[in-house]
Design brief:
Length: 131
């Protein structure tokens, strides 16, 4: 797991507009790579989307935002465990490259209210299809 950066919303909008999109294709070491972007929103005891299908070995970049309070984002059986800032305070970008096929559960790791224990989702990692 690599946490790329947390940025204010205004900066995030500029990046999404395309001005700096190419900059997100570099790893911390500076080598060029592409990651499939996946946006996940946290809000009132749910993640949207709550189910994401990935391909084994394909690196993805989660763009995590909250529509209310700060939430956690933990993927069980990995080292991913970050805090998503509350609405208006930015976003967090996390890279993930699944190394085994199967099901990974993600959940809120920060107490966020009465429905916190129900705030879960699933990453389904499928084998790469052979041509």
């Amino acid at each position: 797991m690599v946490v790329l950066k947390m940025m204010p919303i205004a900066t995030a909008r500029a990046i999404r507009a395309g001005a700096l999109a190419a900059a997100l294709c570099f790893t911390a070491a500076g080598s060029a790579q592409t990651q499939k972007p996946i946006e996940i929103q946290a809000e009132r005891f749910t993640f949207t989307p709550s189910k994401v299908t990935l391909t084994l070995g394909e690196e993805v970049q989660f763009r995590l935002t909250s529509e209310d309070t700060a939430h956690g984002f933990r993927v069980l059986d990995t080292d991913i465990n970050v805090v998503i800032p509350k609405r208006g305070k930015g976003e967090i970008l996390v890279r993930f490259k699944p190394e085994k096929a199967g099901r990974y559960v993600f959940e809120c790791s920060r107490m966020c209210g009465a429905g916190h224990n129900f705030m879960r989702g699933e990453l389904e990692v499928k084998e790469r299809r052979q041509p």
